Amino acid sequence: MNSLKNGWWSERCELWPGVCLSLEVDEVLHESKSQYQDILVLKTKNHGRALILDGIIQCTEADEFTYQEMIAFLPLCCHKSPKKVLVIGGGDGGVAREVAKHPYVESITQVEIDAEVLEVSKKYLPFMGKGLSHPKLTLHVADGFDFMAQHQEEFDVIITDSSDPVGPAVSLFQKEYFEMMRSALKPGGIVCSQSGTFYANIEQVTQTLNHCRSVFASAALAYVTVPTYPTGQIAFVLGSCDPEIKFDIPSISFTDDELEQMQLRYYSSDIHRAAFVLPRFAKKILSNE
Ligand code: SAM
């Protein structure tokens, strides 16, 4: 269904029916079929390079920072001392790049199912792929669901930077996965998972939030704007076993100088607090379920 026609590539997917985003393309840099998915890298006219898996945009060079900073810094800054971090998915390297910036983080374990995505990102998307070579990172090529089942009370923060719930990522949106994440967390730990967009597919957001609510004592939804994602935004589900946690109040606030030094362009304490303020329609639907 996805197409490259007259110099424009269009993203069509049943998860967001009746709407699609198109990117004007200069060049196809890479196209392959891995064991798990179709991999495409485009050089676009106005949005830098773009990674596309199974016909769905994962990131573009122009706006990937918004997503990567928020999926990393929201849970890291909800935790008082995030030392050991687990990233599931994240094959482009952008989340590892951001997590490594947090001053308290000592080690990052990352589990990506598709070795080919890692290689393609290092070669064609070095602005993100550089995260995969960070000295704090230990990288495993494995299924994140299977990995989670084998780990107990190990991590302070678990970030699930998965593709959308099609193909190998389906299991990362199930209730059982949230139960396994709870077991893999140390006391006081936090999880954060991407959970789709509430304009195009509020059912998916609701289902993921409900899994999180049923497993954790506290759960919340936040979102970020990403112009090249379907409907321009994506939500994150956060969970913790601490019934008193206030997700919208960051436990650490960085000064403007510190944010500059860390090269954070989107995240700040103000954005952290604002990310949990939902539009009324979304709040109503999500609180009724
Ligand atoms: N920011 C992106 C988004 O929301 O569209 C996600 C980017 S990252 C490229 C997603 C990664 O999750 C892919 O590289 C994919 O191979 C990986 N992935 C999917 N299912 C997985 C699984 N079961 N275990 C580990 N990694 C998985």
Automatic annotation (TrEMBL):
Function, in words: Catalyzes the production of spermidine from putrescine and decarboxylated S-adenosylmethionine (dcSAM). Has a strong preference for putrescine as substrate, and has very low activity towards 1,3-diaminopropane. Has extremely low activity towards spermidine.
Residue numbers annotated as active site: D161 (proton acceptor)
Protein name: Spermidine synthase
Pathway field: Amine and polyamine biosynthesis; spermidine biosynthesis; spermidine from putrescine: step 1/1
Gene Ontology cellular component annotations, sorted alphabetically: cytosol
Biological process according to GO: spermidine biosynthetic process
Keyword Lipoprotein: no
HAMAP family per UniProt: Spermidine_synth (MF_00198)
GO molecular function terms noted in the UniProt entry: spermidine synthase activity
EC number: 2.5.1.16
Short name of one Pfam family: Spermine_synt_N
Entry-linked InterPro entries: PABS, PABS_CS, SAM-dependent_MTases_sf, Spermi_synthase, Spermidine_synt_N, Spermidine_synt_N_sf
Keywords, alphabetical: Polyamine biosynthesis, Transferase
TM annotation in the entry: none
Cross-referenced PANTHER family: SPERMIDINE SYNTHASE, SPERMIDINE/SPERMINE SYNTHASE
Family from the record: Belongs to the spermidine/spermine synthase family.
Quaternary organization: Homodimer or homotetramer.
Top-level taxonomic group: Eukaryota
The reaction(s) this protein catalyses: S-adenosyl 3-(methylsulfanyl)propylamine + putrescine = S-methyl-5'-thioadenosine + spermidine + H(+)
Keyword hit for Acetylation: no
